[in-house]
Design brief:
231 residues; alpha/beta; Rossmann fold; four-stranded antiparallel β-sheet; 37% helix; globular; ABC_transptr_urea_ATP-bd_UrtE; nucleotide-binding; P-loop_NTPase; ATP binding
């Protein structure tokens, strides 16, 4: 579905991402882990078209999108959940979701219901203002809003930042179900290795803009990924 080949990108004349290659298939969860400054967010920006590729190619569903604008990539089936639990704080949970769902006309309610099914707590708090939710609940709202678009590929940037451990576990389960039951490809970037690796299909360790380790995900891979990050 997504093929990234020999990708370079950066800011001006400064190259941050060097010769990165990886694939994501439908229903596959790929995690990219690394410390602060490794280049994780820069890599996502290039995939989303927010930064230009200075070398290499990006192909999505068989189409070369290396030079495509971000809105074209979103229309093709990408969805992005940025860092920071973003929502409209003065609007209710229901209103936040309908901002997206109502763009789909007669499908609006079914898309709304489908997204809420992934995070039942949102139905419980449907009439609560988003600004009064916990950080974890706002993150669930952000992911549910992205699910309304029925993406082929979900891209998540540091989804556990500032979130309490019990909600982190809920989000991890939801991402796994998203990939397995809905067939959505997932790219997740994180510093928290256990969250990112123990239920992922594959993981990559990014350091100084390069992949320095990779392997199959699972509980047994967590220690190995952590050790690679310490190198």
């Amino acid at each position: 579905m997504l093929e990234v080949k020999n990708l370079n990108t950066g800011y001006g004349k400064v190259t941050v991402i060097n010769d990165i290659s990886f694939d994501v298939d439908a229903g596959q969860w790929i995690s990219i882990v690394g410390n602060n400054g490794a280049g994780k967010t820069t890599l996502l920006k290039a995939i989303l078209g927010l930064l230009p590729a200075t070398a290499g190619t990006i192909t999505f569903d068989g189409t070369d999108i290396t030079k495509a604008a971000p809105n074209r990539r979103i229309r093709a089936g990408m969805a992005f959940v940025p860092q920071g639990q973003q929502s409209f704080g003065q609007m209710t949970v229901e209103e936040n979701l309908h901002v997206v769902a109502d763009q789909y006309g007669s499908e609006a309610q079914s898309r709304y219901d489908d997204a809420v099914a992934a995070f039942p707590v949102l139905k419980e708090f449907a009439t609560r203002r988003a600004g009064l939710l916990s950080g974890g609940q706002r993150q669930q709202l952000s992911i549910a809003r992205a699910l309304i678009t029925r993406p082929k590929l979900m891209i998540l940037d540091e989804p556990t930042e500032g979130i309490q451990p019990n909600i982190v576990a809920d989000i991890q389960r939801s991402i796994r179900q998203m990939s397995e039951e809905r067939g959505i490809g997932v790219i997740l970037v994180e510093q928290k290795v256990q969250f990112a690796v123990e239920r992922a299909d594959l993981y990559y360790v990014l350091a100084s803009g390069r992949f320095i380790a990779a392997g199959e995900g699972g509980p047994g891979a967590v220690a190995e990924a952590k050790e690679s990050m310490r190198v």
